[in-house]
Write a structure and sequence with these properties.
- With 79 residues, the protein is mainly beta.
- It has a domain at 4-50.
- The protein contains one helix and four strands, in the order ββββα.
- It has one helix at 49-53, and strands at residues 4-9, 20-24, 27-31, 41-48.
- Strand 2 (20-24) and strand 3 (27-31) form a beta hairpin.
- It is globular, with a radius of gyration of 12 Å.
- The termini are far apart.
Length: 79
Amino acid sequence: MAALIEFLCVAKHESHRGPAITLEQRSWAYCATGAGDDHQWTRIDATPLEILRSRPGNGRPYFVPDEGDERSLTGPPAG
């Protein structure tokens, strides 16, 4: 069974080390740039990891950062 991601990082990180999965509030979280800190998490409907990693234009949802000021959740992952 694929991991279901419930948080997506929408921060604009300067470094890009590749995608990373971590825990945020006891749920899986995905950062496309693989940054180690300074995440800005937004809650999404539980989504399979494969869909988040898919490229746009293949008939699947593609998530892009929200340019608005509202951030539903921010902070470091829960321990």
